[in-house]
Structures are given as structure tokens and as C-alpha cells.
Fold Sortase family protein.
Amino acid sequence: MILDRRRLALDALTVLLAAAGVTLVVIGGGPPVRPERADVASAGAAPAGAPPAGTGTPSAGAPNAAGAGTPADSAPPPPPGPPAPAAAAPATSGFDGFGPAPLGRSTPVRLTIPAIGVDTPLLELGLHADGTIETPPVAGGAPAGWYRNLASPGEVGPAVVLGHVDSARDGPAVFFRLRELRAGDRVAVKRADGRTAVFTVDRVAEYAKAAFPTAEVYGSLDHSGLRLVTCGGEFDRYRREYKGNVIAFASLSSVA
């Protein structure tokens, strides 16, 4: 009887040890596999002052509770480099002798787009203290704004202009009809030097904010280009912002 009890106790201990062994194998197994580093392909070089690849542009006009636009992304661009000197722009090898010669650097002061009834002064936009791009104010007629850390309109490179699409308080804003632009429409930008750079629209496209075409908007060019950016797509009523951007791409076609 005592032997049977000892046998039963030994069997029980064996079962417990076996169970403990299984538990140790499950919990204390080998180290987890270290994930491989994901390769990141560069979409192309961008000039100084452009946000890094993969970031979007500021939301230019998504109405929120306060009626103002909100930034499209939280990843700040790097500190901008100094603007290109005015004398350097015409010396680019990108000018092939056909079409207008590019202009030197000059602050843009007014933008007109007859096809969609736009006539707006242009503000200068820079960076916030946290490195995010400024957006034009909603108050004061909600004029469009030029991002001064890239090319000026008419200069070699991408000139970027941001404008609100609408606001909760005032309704349609300066770029409300931007999506209606078509290839061949004209955009005129008056500059502080008295010249007017006239651009012809190449295309208009809509992008989800997560798929913002950073390289196409901010990337280096061998000619004078213009990008007009506003919000678009579906409006997220919970976050009080649009889910996408409408962007018009244009190229310099004449100078007055």
C-alpha cells in the first residue's frame, strides 16, 4: 500500500515535471527572429527646402471646428536651405531654347486663373517652429500663399502655391474650383519685379494624403514649374478634414 502511494506520488511528480518542462519550452523558447531592415527606395532628389520623401503637403482648406485648415501630416520637413540666387536660374542646362527663358528669383504678389475665376494676392509661407509648413489664414479673404523655400514662379524649379478649398465659416474659398482646371488652361503670376509668369496647366490630379506625390510636387526640375495645392476627396466629419489633396501641375509657357 505504501509502495503504491509512493508510486502514485512519483508518477504525479513526473507528470508535474513534464508539465513544467512543456511550460518552460513554450515560455522560454529561443529568441524571436530579428526583423530584417526594410529597404527604402528614393523617389528622386528634392531641392533644399522641400519636405522629405513620403510626407504630404499641408491641408489647404479642410474645414474644422474652428473653420480653419489643418496640417496634412505630422512629419516635419527638414530646415530649408537658402533660396537659390536670382542670377543662377537662367544658367540652367534645362533650357533648350524653345519656349520662354526662365526668370530670376522674385517674390510673387498675385495669381489669376481666368478659367475658374481666381484672382488672389499671394502671401509668403514658411515653416512653423515645429518644422511644419504654414498654411494661409482663413480670415481676410483667405488668399493663397506661396511656399518661399522653393522656387519663385518663373524661376527654374517647382513653385508651390497653397490655397484653401473652403471653410466651415465662409464656405467656398480661393481654390474651391481647382479640380475644374483642365490641361491647357492658363495661370498667371504677377511678380514683384514687374514681370508676369504665365503657366499652362499640364494636368490636375487627386491623391489620398497617405499617397501624396512628394517627389512630383517638391522634386527638382530642369524647367520652371508651378504646383497649385488644395484639399480634396472625401471629407472626414469625425476628424474635420479632407482625406486627400487636389494638385494642378503647370509649366511656364510665356513671360510678360
